[in-house]
Every structure is written in C-alpha cells, then in structure tokens.
Write a structure and sequence with these properties.
alpha+beta, Topoisomerase I, Chain A, domain 4, Gyrase A, domain 2, four-stranded antiparallel β-sheet, 6 strands, 15% strand
C-alpha cells in the first residue's frame, strides 16, 4: 500500500516536470526554435488546431523560423494566430510561407522573460508540493484506519519527501539552464 502511494506520487511528479519542460520550450530563448510556435492554436475551419498539425516548422537560420502550411488556405489563420499570441513577433507572409524573424532580445525583454520563467518554476514547485501533500494525506488516512503501521507511515512520508526534493531540484536545474539561455547575448 505504501509503495503504491509512493509510485503514484512519483508518476505524478514526473508528469509535472514533463509539463514544465514543455512550457519551457514555449519560452523564447536566444535562438529561434520551432517549439516556440508548434503548440500555438490556430482557428482552422472553426476548430482550434495546433500549428504543428497544419504546417512544417523549421529554422533555416539561427534567428528565423519558417512555417510552410500543408494547406495554403490556412495561411491567413496561422498569421492571425501568431499576431494574437504573446511571442511578440510579426509574421512575414510571402504567399506560400510565413517567416518569423527573431529580433535580438532587449535587456528589458530578457528580464520580463526571466520573470515569466520564475513564475512557471514556482507553479511547478507548488504542483510538486501539492502531490506530496496528497500522498502524505493518503498515508495518514491508511494509518488512521490501521491499514498500515506507524513505522510504515514514517517510512512513506520520508520516501515522499525524498521524491519531492529530487523533483524540485530537477525543476530548479531546468530553470537555471533556461535562464542562462535567455540571458545569453
């Protein structure tokens, strides 16, 4: 029983770190990256569809993203979605493709991005702590119902804390790497 709770907590924490990593890809760094726009939702025939399902996204140059729609009629919808997003880049449309030229980040914009990064890091840490709390609550409930011993409760809480520390450290490390990427000139 204790091992089941620990395994479930570990799985949820791993998933939280995965979601955090995905969010980091959407944060602009110093180089152009297809992950900046691939999850952008485009209104395609009335359905919100991820850009990566509608187009090929590549980086022909370090400061440029090239978007080639599979369906040329989606060009206007893709352009509109990019303009409405918070990436702060105006799309250049040449009739068949969309080019996003990444301007150099200003010091102020870098600082804004770092603030966003820190907010997302804190949200991920809070999510990990909430998983820890839920696991500990389950362990205490089992102990109250005499399904596990007091020793099992202590061992379980200790294991859950070790997991929490490990995954929070992983979030910190990912955040430091991304911050370095953002601040790099």
């Amino acid at each position: 029983m204790v091992d089941d709770i620990i395994a479930e907590a570990k799985s949820k924490m791993k998933s939280t770190v995965g979601v955090f990593e995905t969010e980091l890809h959407g944060l602009r760094g110093n180089r152009a990256s297809p992950t900046l726009v691939d999850r952008l939702h485009v209104d395609y025939y009335g359905q919100p569809t991820e850009l990566r399902q509608l187009a090929t996204i590549s980086t022909p140059e370090p400061t440029q993203i090239l978007i080639r729609p599979f369906d040329k009629t989606a060009l206007k919808s893709i352009e509109k979605a990019i303009q409405q997003s918070d990436i702060g880049i105006n799309p250049n449309v040449d009739g068949e493709n969309i080019r996003l030229n990444m301007p150099a980040l200003t010091r102020e914009r870098r600082q804004q991005l770092v603030k966003v990064l820190h907010t997302r890091m804190e949200e991920a840490r809070v999510a990990i702590r909430n998983i820890r709390r839920a696991a500990n609550d389950d362990l205490k409930e089992f102990e109250r119902e005499k399904m596990i011993s007091e020793d099992d409760l202590e061992r379980g809480e200790s294991e859950v804390q070790k997991l929490t520390d490990k995954f929070i450290e992983e979030i910190e490390n990912l955040g430091k790497i991304k911050e370095k990427d953002i601040m790099e000139i």
